[in-house]
Amino acid sequence: KKMSKSAGAGHCIFLADEPEIIRKKIAKAVTDEGGGMGEHISGGRNLLQLFKVLSGDKVLKQQLDDQYRAGELKYSEFKPLLAEAIIKLLEPIQEKRKELMSKPKEVEKILRSGRDQARLIAGKTLAEVKEKMGLT
User: The domain containing residue 91 runs over which residues?
Assistant: First the structure.
């Protein structure tokens, strides 16, 4: 399915999902009915592609790719690796979010400043457009 047609909150990973929730969601990720992944299996291939993008370990990526192509990689072994790669990726984002959530006044100040800058730029652009269209 396309991401726009996701099956709901249990079928996607949110930036704020806790590690245990991520592990559970990956464990439930739809794959084929067999225990192993082979070249013909699109669900397994999608998971492996996601892992390749997220993991920085070139050696592990190659090992998993080789096992996958040989049909020797088991979901029970692979899914925890994928979950940990996602958790590692999201960790700094989640830390920054927690930090910002603890400073609501500072966040509000930043948002007001951004709004004011956007209004200034938009006002200039609108004036320029009106002038070029002969509306002033």
Answer: 3-101
What's the CA gap between 37 and 99, in Å, rounded?
40
Q: Are 23 and 80 in contact (CB under 8 A)?
A: yes
pLDDT at residue 69, as a whole number = 85
Count Cα neighbours of 136 within 13 Å in the Cβ-side half-sphere. 8
Report pLDDT digits (tens) over 80-136: 999 999 999 999 999 999 999 999 999 999 999 999 999 999 999 999 999 999 998
Q: What is the pTM of this model?
A: 0.70
Cα distances (angstroms) measured from residue 120 to each of 111, 125, 132, 135: 14, 9, 19, 20
* Pair 79, 128 in one domain: no
Same domain, residue pair 23 and 85:
yes
Please list the residues that pair with 74 across neighbouring strands.
36
